[in-house]
Amino acid sequence: MASPPPKIMALWNAKAAAAEHPWKGGSGGGSSASLLAAHHLGGGGQRHRRSGSSSFKLAAAVEDEVGSLEQWREAQLEEWGKKEAARCDSGDPDLEFCELPGIINTPPAERSAAEEAWSRGRWLLGLLVLQSMSSVVLDSYQELLRDHLVVTLFLTMLVGAGGNAGNQSAIKVIRGLATGSMKPTGPGVRRAMQQQLAVGLLLGAGLAAGGWVRVYLTNGNALNATAISISLFLIVLCSVVAGTGLPFALAKAGVDPANAGTSIQVIMDITGVLITCATCHLVLDQLAAGLSVA
User: Fold this and answer.
1) Boundaries of domain holding 209
2) How many whole angstroms separate alpha carbon 26 and alpha carbon 162?
3) Which pLDDT tens digit goes with each residue over 94-139?
4) Is 152 left (phi over 0), alpha (psi -120 to 50) or beta?
5) Looking at the 3D structure of the chain, how many domains does it have?
6) Which 3 state secondary structure label does DSSP give 21?
7) Does residue 178 lie in a domain region?
């Protein structure tokens, strides 16, 4: 957020000090606010300081020079509000600004049904087209799906787990951006990514263990269960990391981070299908063939 010019800030500080403590200053050289104002005002301020004038007298001189600082401040806040309020709502808040009265917790402007449908519909249409790319992946692994029906049976479980895990991480970051506890800066992003990477490893390991038991009890084949559980581990790990980074990326791009919730579902549908097919092909075809030869 743009800051007021130093000279104006000095004038404002001087006036505020005079309004709160008009008795301070006197012959002792003035308050810290008056000295700051004197530094920025140059010669006129120096004369006030040398003469030992009070903050109240300095503020009176300020009023004569720049007019009403109250009106200036209100005009500046209104101008900043128009430019910055959208960032507070979009999850990219400048905390110093967003904490001003009337900025945070201000209800968004109401839109007509057509405007909201257009805003949401174009995003959903793009996701629809993107999600259709999973058919290209499935078409490339027709032989795998034909020879190993277990992959098809558990495919929805795998991509669903990835979407759920990624959505959890995305919601956490979206909430953090909205409340100001997270900011899309380099250190903030690195801290969140490192923390969620550890979470992803733990979640992936736990869900993979549960998935192995689930597949083995249903299918009775340890190799099939291993292929599915490895796929599940990789999908959950990638989903948590992607779900954490996507809201930050959208915020930096000026897009509402709330769209990350739906986007991560689609992204992990495609990524999950790709990871599952590639992993199961490696384990069930290539690794199994190597073991049989040995």
Assistant:
1) 137-293
2) 70
3) 444 454 444 444 455 567 888 888 878 888 888 888 888 888 888 8
4) alpha
5) 1
6) coil
7) yes
Whether 9 is covered by a domain: the verdict is no
Residue 6 lies in a domain: no
Cβ-based neighbour number of residue 140 at 10 Å: 13
**Which residue type sits at 281?**
H
Average the pLDDT over 265-286 and give the result.
91
Question: In 3D, which of 246, 156, 165, 245 has the Cα closest to residue 202?
Answer: 165
Helix crossing, 32-41 with 6-20: angle to 10°? 150
289: in domain? yes
- One DSSP character per residue, 84-136 reads HHHHHHHT---HHHHTSTTTTTPPPPP--HHHHHHHHHHHHHHHHHHHTTHHH
**pTM recorded for the entire structure:** 0.60
Please report, for the domain that includes residue 270, its CATH number: 1.10.357.20
Please state at what angle helix 155-179 crosses helix 186-219, rounded to 10 degrees. Answer: 160
Structure tokens at 27: 């012959």
User: What is the spatial distance between Cα 155 and Cα 173, in angstroms, rounded to a whole number?
Assistant: 28
Question: Is 5 strand, coil or helix?
Answer: coil
